[in-house]
Amino acid sequence: MKLFFKRVAVVCTVVSATLLVNLPAQATTAAGFPFFSATNTDTMPSLAPMLETAMPAVVSINVEGTQVSRQRVPEMFRNFFGGQGEQVQERPFRSLGSGVIIDAKKGYIVTNAHVVKDADEILVTLTDGREFTGKKLGSDEQSDIALLKIEPTNLIAMPLADSDILRVGDFVIAIGNPFGLSQTVTSGIVSALGRTGINMGGYENFIQTDAAINRGNSGGALVNLKGELVGINAAIFSPGRDAGNVGIGFAIPSNMMKNLVDQISEFGEVRRGLLGIIGNDVDAGLAEAFNSDVNKGAFVAEVSPDSAAKKAGIEAGDIITALNGKTLGSFAELRAKVASMGAGADLELTIIRQGKVMTVQVTLGDAGVTVKTAAEIHPAFSGATFADGTDIAGNRGVTVSDIEAASPALRFGLRKDDVIIGVNRQRVNNIKELTERLANSEDEVMAINVRRGDTTLYLVIRK
User: Fold this and answer.
1) Which of 219, 227, 416, 420 has the fewest CB atoms within 10 Å distance of its CB?
2) Cα separation, 381 vs 59, whole angstroms
3) Distance (Å, rounded) from C-alpha 243 to C-alpha 404?
4) Among all residues, which ones are annotated catalytic?
5) pTM for the full model?
């Protein structure tokens, strides 16, 4: 049987269904479960009082955008396409998802990056029916988090919980807009913590829950019984492409989300922290080989020279068991938590070396990873990988760290190790400034100033 992991944004459809909200079967009396409030009589437990406070912080997000696909045209057929080597197709789309207000004063809303990817227009609808145009402040596709902003007018924000203290078995509630059905609530428990292998190639430390999550729930809230946000719903596990909820859903922990949106709100991008180690999970065999009683954690196979780990005294063969006092279950969990912390963040790692427990203080380096791909900045840059950097003279700019063969960026004239330092004779020092210059320019034709070694050149693109 083939299995699929599905992100849960959905194209708008109209359906009819009966909505059932399942309470935990064990919760039979208010006296036995003090987190329930009684309504009408003392024998009828209910989550309604908590939800009346939490639900106004969950919003519906409607997206309109254009997806661009590019296909290489074989030489023999290029005459049919005006001599062009590439066929470009644009397809409009509409989709929907959910979001959570996390700062009422600033109008900040967090959702999934895949919900607002390729969005031209974002419409945010509150529970009271008010509608706002949303502005995307930034996103991080590798952790699937995006930050939006709306007009901060009489909004209600959801308080954040410490997701690091979650335990398997804790009751949780999912709130979102599945299949376009607004303000749907489902209940369940935390089924597992530290799940990986869902967002392939990304940074993963998912909360697993059996609270029903379906398409359209993407970006919605996973809350505890105090009405506090513990996670952002992101994906479901499904036995088939068209199958719905089977009781296995995944949410991004609130602590990880907060670290990322704090960076986006301050810098407009994620300035990812870097520890500088290569490793893998600890298992029973590895623990035995290194004479360790611990069979969970992150094994350090290699330490990069001049890295934050090297400066902190971490060595190959160490087993990292905790970060800031919180136990680590795997190398993937360590990787995800470090990556969500900003460059320059200070942290404490607990390690085991030759059977001895030690703690080390680490100041993270800069991974040089941006929140935007080159293609998102401008279609002409498709196929290039950008990073903040400097030219040979030490001037700050945007470095082309990699470029794909036969890509639009290569045909446009970019080369690996080029450094973009300006747009229309205006200096750009980083990816954020490059993005802003291109987005705010009213010129149809823009000259991109590039440093290639000790040579300066201009490449021309059209808006």
Assistant:
1) 416
2) 34
3) 36
4) 114, 144, 218
5) 0.67
